[in-house]
Amino acid sequence: MNIENTEINGFLIDKFNQYGLKPGSTQGTCPLCSHTRQPKNKTAQCASYDWERGLGTCHNCDTSFQLHTYQRKGNATREYVKPIPVEVFEPVKDKAVEWFKTRGITQQTLDDLYVTTGDEFMPQTGQKENTIQFNYIMGDELVNVKYRDGRKNFKLYKGAEKIFYNINSIVGYDWCVITEGEMDALALHEAGVKNVISVPNGATLNSNNLDYLDNCIDYFEDKEKIILAVDADEAGQALRYEFIRRLGAEVCYLVDFNGNKDANDFLVEHGAEELRKIITTATQVPLEGVSTLKDIEAELLDFVHNGFKPGFQVGLENFDNIFSTYTSQFITVTGIPSSGKSDFVDQMCIGYNRNYGWKTAYASPENKPNFLHAHKLIRKTWEGLPTKDDIGTDRWKQVTEHINDNYYFIDMDRYTLEDVLRKGAELVKRKGIKCLVIDPFNKIRDVDCKTEDVNRYTMEYLTKIETFAKKYDVLVMVVAHPTKMYRDKDGKIEEPTMYSIKGGGEWYDASYHGLLVHRDYEAQTVKVKVLKVKFQNLGENQAEAHFNWEPKSGSYIPLVTESAGNDPMPWD
């Protein structure tokens, strides 16, 4: 085997053979215990080496160890601030050591996971505090630091890259454990589970912006089992769900802390052996496509107590009064040519991003070139028209970085639905998108469907979209041009319906929601009409919302009208 410049599982090997072992050999001494054994056993071949995975296993001390570390193949495009490198990590101060002991954590674990102490300015108190410092190391580089003071105030190193804590520990293993906090990672390490990592900033409800997962996604490519040991509260369960969505239910396993909040609390109450046991007995995510009442009991009880959950809204008051949506659904948007369908879809994506942090991917062959589409998104986010004088300013940098991190343009020589959905699935995993825009559907064909039967083709096409939306919990918006357009007695083109789209009956039946967008260029107004809502708690059929439309910024300013739909939604 060529040791230098070797690539394995999408990684470039950065530091190979860190223990000075014989490369390529399958058996040898253990760097962790052989030197401590009796002289006659010091040279015994008690360990097995797997150089492909970069993992060694000792049959004497029953411990695994890394043969080498990895450097990520793809470097992030964003420039991050790096903490000041540390040559030697100072040991934790005695008082802190005593506190960690009360949480079941020993000095050895603190040393193993690079925990230190020191003074640090904390913005919450406005002064320097004595802090515990969790050092985030990737390969052999200090990437970030998390500080915690005695009042449980936290901060990460400003401007540094977010990654998982203890990320090096999962290299080489085909399984790993993800926890919600550094203390939980320490607890599991203490219990003998070494390949454990923690998210850097806990769990937050209604947030799918897991930038640390984006930055570390390569580390999970070879994982056959990912155990989610997050907190039992609502925010922890939301985080668990997002990991399942991004990493795939087929590899995810769930831990039940039996009434304890998290892994560290469980360690304190039950001890290391019991903690290790509940990790080894983690249960697989329920089989896809099959549910029992127990699987959906939490949702059932929530519905009994609270009724329907509010739908997601775009932040335009008059439109929000008549329409909202859930994820795992798809919306059909229609209108006559040049009526502003794509522009209003952009506005919806902007609104979902502002309100919920959703990221969007566009498969939009008609919205080319991409830089012009990006410019539209910049204008809507900017809420104005930036000029050349704005380029290079702090606001320009802030807005463009935001667009770069939240909107993705799918480029293909020939768009097919199969390829678009495959790329969409990849973007769910690697970037966490929650919206997929197909614009327009007739330019993104399905090679597997027969075109001679329009109705059958349309239903198969929309079924594949629905399946994708449900599997990845994504909102899909499909822009569909009408093929049937009629003029009234005055020569004006009549407003299309969903039946005006080719295969119209199937569109109406299959779509969860339908919207009509119609722009009056002379008056610079836009009408959005609800053609269908599948669930009446989410909107009002045939209701309309009217807007002034500002061409330079692309902004929509709600107009008050006497049309239907001014009553609040059921949950308001």
Walk me through this protein's architecture.
By secondary structure, the protein is of the alpha/beta class. The protein has three domains: 7-72, no CATH class; 94-284, Dna Topoisomerase Vi A Subunit, Chain: A, domain 2 (3-Layer(aba) Sandwich); 317-559, 3-Layer(aba) Sandwich (Rossmann fold). Helix content is 28%, strand content 22%. The protein has 15 helices and 25 strands. It has helices at 94-102, 107-112, 182-190, 211-216, 234-247, 263-270, 272-280, 293-306, 317-320, 341-356, 370-382, 394-406, 417-431, 454-472, 504-510, and strands at residues 7-8, 11-15, 27-28, 47-50, 55-58, 64-66, 69-72, 115-122, 127-138, 141-148, 154-156, 175-179, 196-198, 225-229, 252-254, 283-284, 330-334, 360-363, 407-409, 435-438, 475-479, 513-520, 525-533, 544-550, 555-559. The strands form five sheets. Strands 19-18-20-21-17-22-23-24-25 form a nine-stranded mixed beta sheet, sandwiched between helices. Strands 13-12-14-15-16 form a five-stranded mixed beta sheet, sandwiched between helices. Strand 10 (141-148) and strand 11 (154-156) form a beta hairpin. Helix 3 packs parallel to helix 6, helix 10 (341-356) crosses helix 11 (370-382) and helix 13 runs parallel beside helix 14. The chain starts with 6 loop residues before the first strand and ends in a 13-residue tail after the last strand.
